[in-house]
Write a structure and sequence with these properties.
The chain is an alpha+beta fold and about 750 residues long. It is built from 25 helices and 18 strands. A five-stranded mixed beta sheet has the order 2-1-3-13-14. The chain has a five-stranded antiparallel beta sheet with strand order 5-4-18-17-16, with helices on both faces. A two-stranded antiparallel ribbon has the order 6-11. Helix 13 packs antiparallel against helix 14 and helix 20 crosses helix 21. The radius of gyration is 46 Å and the shape is elongated. The chain starts with 15 loop residues before the first helix and ends in an 18-residue tail after the last helix.
Length: about 750
């Protein structure tokens, strides 16, 4: 049987390359087998075509291979899940950013974010001296503000501001590191916020203040400043939307206009005007550095609170500006050597007592609760204000023992009641403090006596009329007998009304008050402006009632102007910032006539003797005619001196807030000296003028001898009282017609027992 495979080729793999070469050969000839290395060129060609491929690794076998494969599978799943999650988060974030983008208004609607308005006060020359409320000042932009301020803010708050996309991962990481190193939580303390994020926070992430929501403005601001993780995340998204919506300079402009910079000032323009009295466009490096330094802690670092602390912070800002190339070494050295200082208006701490008083006298909806920017023109004379402060300080520095807690107050005004200066206490650079010139009700003592004599003079009494200064008692129903005494505990006998006032004698003042009638004296005092309830008893003549310094000074202004009442005022007119016409004018000035002009002129004559010859001699200065009256209450709890020249009226009060008695002080002592030092400075450059006074008529005798108090004073009692009658008994007839006997009865226990001067 033949083998079927006989003659067939064996099943052996061909030598591909060798046989292929033979097959293509035209004349096959016996050749030696090609060497093995001849196949290398073809192998290299194949290798080139597969160079980009990864070499196939041999799969591991066994348990290690299993775990390796498992790990690769897990990583592949994680990668797929993470990439898809990132994609989803990115899409959601883009949608949220897009939503906030659509809610962002135009830039110009975000520049003034105050919920309330401001009050700017001008002195009588039109110069700004005080601010109240949320001061804005006007819009600035990153392009028109001082380049130094722009650079200082960027150098201090966010040096990569022009490089990041609204968030600074590097800044956040640095803040977290600092917080942890200082023992705080990672998000507590330093926040690493960019200027964009801070601006987002200033905008409260687009949530406007709504008073109708039952939330106060302070609560709203606290909510905007919350630092929770959720709030931080929303802040970051809002910042991204702002970066997409606005340019860098627009974001910086919003920040420069809305940031609170202390002292009630919002924005760069308001702060520049508030602290330096100039526009934000012309700030020098020192001033710019001070404002930029306030952004960290505006209330604590405010220069009106602590100038030195603010200057130290500004020095740090200047160093940062030099390190970042905004200032040369020479420019920084000059700025460091000349730190920013406050303007005179800022130095006065927002106008002090006077500004507080003006705010209290204006309508509340245009002052304390205004939603508009209001301009108030006032009567203040800053030169006189400075004079009053310097006069008070000079006396306390040179005449009062160190460490004394005694207080003092001064009011200076014109004869029409226009207040030119006001000092409400020894701490003169204050705002919102207790004002002893307008708020302290104190017993007036003998400073009240001019109103007793004003009532008498208006009835026809003469300054030269005689009154008997001798022991004198009154039976007061329900209180017993009251016997006033003089400060010296001595009596002078027959004396003129002028001398009785000059020496501040108590008995004559009481006798005259009883003669003309207490009701008339009370009426005259009230019409002159002393509004508080006056004591009903005979001690009213000695100043047992209470009043404020501004009321008493205004009442004396009525004497100077010829006998017309005066309402002290500080507000001349009030208008809105953009209006040219005022909304309201002054509510004060000269009112109705109280006493005849001739009576006022005779009273001025008597009060001039108080200063030239009597208890007020220490008030004299400059050879001027001056008139006034001293006052010291029982136990020396209050000491007064109120007086005037031909041009200005001034009142001084001195005492302790807790009614501690003054030691060795009377109205003719330290108060008169404070008055002199203040008025001497007030009158610098003021021409000397005579007082508008009138010489008195010839003397008449009013009282002599003892008085039987069972009969009203002013009626003849031959046994005990010799009243020398005037021609035709005109005065007695007037007393009879008005009071049915001319005298006042008892009624009410006296508060003071004399001893006043």
């Amino acid at each position: 049987m033949s083998d079927s495979r006989k003659g067939k080729r064996p099943l052996v793999a061909d030598n591909r390359y060798g046989r292929k070469a033979k097959a293509t050969s035209a004349k096959p000839a016996p050749k030696k087998a090609a060497p093995k290395k001849a196949a290398k060129p073809a192998a290299r060609t194949w290798a080139k075509s597969t160079r980009a491929r990864k070499p196939v690794r041999a799969k591991r076998g066994g348990i290690m291979g299993f775990f390796a494969g498992l790990a690769r599978g897990i990583l592949r799943v994680i990668w797929v899940a993470t990439s898809r999650a990132v994609l989803v988060v990115g899409l959601v974030l883009a949608l949220i950013v897009g939503y906030f983008y659509t809610t962002l208004p135009p830039v110009n609607e975000l520049l003034d974010g105050r919920a309330s308005g401001s009050v700017t006060m001008l002195d009588h020359n039109g110069e700004v001296f005080a601010w109240r409320g949320d001061q804005f000042g006007g819009v600035v932009t990153a392009e028109n503000v001082s380049p130094h301020l722009k650079n200082a803010v960027v150098a201090t708050e966010d040096k990569r501001f022009y490089k990041h996309f609204g968030l600074s991962p590097r800044g956040i990481a640095s803040a977290v590191r600092i917080n942890l190193s200082e023992g705080r939580g990672p998000l507590s303390g330093h926040g690493g916020s960019t200027i964009t994020q801070q601006t987002a926070k200033l905008l409260c992430l687009g949530e406007p203040f709504d008073p109708s929501a039952g939330q106060t403005e302070a609560e709203y601001e606290a909510q905007c400043r919350r630092g929770s993780l959720k709030r931080k995340a929303k802040e970051a998204v809002y910042a991204l939307a702002m970066e997409a919506k606005y340019s860098k300079n627009e974001i910086l402009s919003i920040y420069l206009n809305r940031a609170y910079m202390g002292g009630g000032a919002y924005g760069a323009e308001g702060a520049a005007q508030r602290f330096f009295g100039k526009q934000a466009a012309i700030l020098n490096p020192s001033e710019a550095a001070m404002l930029a330094g306030l952004l960290t802690a505006p209330s604590t670092l405010s220069p009106t609170s602590n100038l030195e602390r603010s200057q130290n912070r500004a020095a740090t800002v200047l160093r940062l500006m030099k390190e970042q190339g905004y200032l040369s070494a020479e420019e920084e050295a000059v700025a460091q050597a000349n730190p920013a200082v406050l303007s005179e208006a800022a130095e006065a701490r927002a106008g002090g007592y006077f500004a507080d008083w003006v705010m209290s006298t204006g309508p509340e909806f245009f002052t304390r609760n205004t939603t508009e920017d209001v301009i108030i023109r006032t009567t203040l004379d800053q030169r006189m204000q400075k004079a009053a402060v310097e006069g008070l300080n000079w006396v306390f520095d040179n005449k009062v023992r160190e460490g004394s807690k005694a207080q003092a107050a001064i009011v200076v005004m014109s004869a029409d009641g226009a207040v030119r200066a006001m000092v409400g206490g020894r701490k003169t650079k204050v705002s919102g403090a207790f004002n002893r010139a307008t708020q302290a009700l104190r017993q007036t003592g003998s400073a009240f006596k001019p109103f007793v004599y004003a009532a008498a003079l208006d009835l026809g009494y003469s300054p030269n009329d005689l009154v008997d200064d001798s022991p004198y008692c009154i039976d007061i129903p329900g209180s017993g007998q009251w016997c006033p005494k003089n400060y010296t505990k001595r009596f002078v006998g027959q004396t003129t009304m002028t001398n009785a006032l000059t020496q501040s004698l108590n008995v004559p003042a009481v006798k005259i008050s009883e003669s003309v009638g207490r009701e008339l004296v009370s009426t005259v005092a009230s019409q002159f402006g002393i509004k508080n309830d006056l004591a009903a008893g005979p001690a009213m003549a000695l100043g047992s009632s209470e009043s404020t310094l501004i009321e008493m000074t205004g009442a004396f202004a009525g004497i100077l102007n010829g006998g017309s009442s005066v309402t002290p005022y500080g507000l001349i007119d009030l208008r809105l910032r953009d209006d040219s016409e005022p909304l309201m004018g002054t509510g004060g000035g000269i009112g109705e006539r109280v006493i005849q002009e001739s009576a006022a002129q005779q009273l001025i004559y008597m009060m001039e003797k108080v200063v030239s010859e009597g208890t007020g001699r220490r008030a004299q200065f400059g050879g001027r005619q001056l008139a006034g009256k001293t006052g010291t209450t029982s136990a020396a709890k209050d000491a007064w001196f109120i007086g005037f020249s031909a041009d200005y009226v001034a009142g001084v009060w001195m005492g302790y807030d807790d009614n501690t008695p003054l030691k060795g002080v009377t109205g003719g002592g330290l108060p008169a000296e404070i008055w002199r030092e203040a008025m001497k400075r007030v009158h610098e450059g003021v021409p000397v003028k005579p007082l508008p006074m009138r010489e008195p008529a010839p003397a008449q005798v009013i009282f002599e001898g003892e008085v039987n108090e069972t009969m009203p004073i002013g009626q003849n009692n031959p046994a005990t009282d010799t009243l020398v009658s005037r021609p035709k008994n005109i005065i007695d007839q007037v007393l009879q017609d008005i009071f049915g006997g001319g005298g006042g009865g008892g009624g009410g226990a006296p508060v003071s027992n004399g001893g006043n001067r």
